[in-house]
Design a protein that fits this description.
alpha+beta
């Protein structure tokens, strides 16, 4: 992020303050059909600075008469009813834009993310929940995507050899084949011929009844999924390589977040030049290429740090507040272990079985469905041993506890309560 003076004040659309901006303005129907589009420099004087929670409240209670004290201060002669109606109008358009986007072949492989509440005194996590994307988030997302696509087309039209764009390669075929073959053994057919067909296949398994299966499929597909990349149009040359697989659009860029992404600043400079408000970069495509590669490296590093940070906070939470008992679904089978996805958290863990009170462990990797069969020894409540069969998509319960090694969590399979070994 830029320094606070810039990102929180000078470059933020604070209410009742004029701000110089680059804007994309559309005239469109409520169905999301674009009648006219304009890109240019503008002055925005926002009337209110709302949070996602405020907008979500309006969306969830569309008929409510909002009192002034229930929303942030509103300026410019506007009132709560005007703000409410604007949010509802934008929400209606965003729903139609999203519907149209997926009808045109977009793909969403959204993995579950965990978020934490922190103790005010210690800063340690004292609670957690799965992050939930709501309609207010989707509202902003749809218009951001639309603006990014509009700017991508404009800068590429004016600077076909120097446009800074963002592409997303298709899934890696070699890894994808392993996923589809494995799924087919369990009666799950994934059509991976295009992003559209894959999304349609996944839709059958992301409903409420099979939500756990949907989580596993998304995690499996994350392995062949390649990262999106910034690039200079003059370096690739072949326009077919510009394609963004997940969005299923020919041109895309990042324009909407210049206070936290350097590529957006490069795009703003190109847009300014295309509008006659600045000089185009004198750098050649060969000189722009290492800049985009550096941006890719930094973005990948930021994602890695974010993932590791979430793991660290979760580990601290388990150590401070655990052990935890969680329901999980099996994602992979090995000879003496298996991988699970914790359903409430979206966290993947490996469960080892050697130290469990078992009399027999059998791993069958040659079977149509890889299977790990465990025979539990009798305990004080059961006079007979019993057999547990574990394969992919099996639901199990695990206990999570802090390991002796700092920063590690141990996932231990709970003893099941049924399936006697005759």
């Amino acid at each position: 992020m830029l320094p606070r003076l810039l990102c929180e004040q000078l470059c933020s659309l604070n209410p009742a303050e004029d701000r110089l901006t680059f804007s994309v303005v559309w005239t469109m129907t409520e169905d999301g059909e674009i009648i006219d589009e304009w890109c240019g420099r503008s002055i925005i004087c926002s009337c209110v600075k709302m949070s996602y929670q405020h907008a979500q409240g309006i969306i969830e209670q569309p008929e409510k008469v909002w009192q002034p004290e229930e929303l942030p201060p509103i300026s410019g002669g506007h009132d709560t009813n005007t703000v409410r109606q604007c949010v509802l109008n934008l929400h209606k358009i965003a729903l139609n834009l999203r519907k149209k986007r997926f009808s045109n072949g977009a793909l969403a492989l959204n993995q579950m993310k965990i978020q934490f509440s922190l103790d005010k005194e210690t800063g340690y996590p004292n609670g957690y929940s799965a992050y939930e994307q709501k309609d207010s988030n989707r509202l902003v997302e749809e218009f951001m995507l639309l603006a990014n696509m509009a700017v991508a087309h404009k800068i590429y039209k004016h600077y076909p050899d120097r446009a800074i764009l963002r592409r997303h390669p298709a899934l890696q075929e070699s890894l994808l084949t392993g996923v589809t073959d494995l799924c087919s053994r369990f009666g799950i057919q994934l059509d991976t011929s295009s992003a559209r067909s894959l999304q349609e296949s996944l839709t059958h398994y992301i409903g409420e009844k099979s939500q756990a299966v949907g989580y596993v499929l998304v995690n499996m597909l994350a392995k062949p999924l390649q990262a999106a990349q910034y690039f200079c149009s003059g370096v690739l040359g072949d326009e077919s390589l510009f394609h963004h697989y997940a969005l299923n659009v020919p041109l895309y860029t990042h324009f909407t977040s210049p206070i936290r992404r350097y590529p957006d600043i490069l795009v703003h400079r190109l847009l300014a030049a295309s509008l006659g408000a600045g000089e185009p970069s004198d750098k050649s495509p060969a000189e722009l290429h290492p800049i985009t590669e550096h941006c890719n490296d930094k973005k990948n590093s930021a994602k890695t740090v974010s993932d590791l940070s979430a793991q660290l906070f979760f580990t601290v939470f388990v150590k401070e507040c655990g052990p935890l008992e969680e329901e999980a679904i099996v994602m992979g089978i090995l000879d003496h272990s298996f991988d699970v996805l914790l359903l409430r958290l979206g966290v993947a863990k490996r469960v080892f079985v050697e130290k469990l009170p078992l009399s027999e462990i059998t791993y069958d990797k040659e079977a149509k469905k890889p299977t790990l069969t465990l025979v539990w020894k009798p305990d004080s409540d059961n006079i007979r041993p019993f057999r547990q069969t574990i394969t992919i998509f099996t639901i199990v319960r695990v206990n999570l506890s802090a390991a002796d090694t700092p920063g590690k969590i141990v996932a231990t399979l709970q003893r099941p309560e049924s399936e006697w070994d005759e």
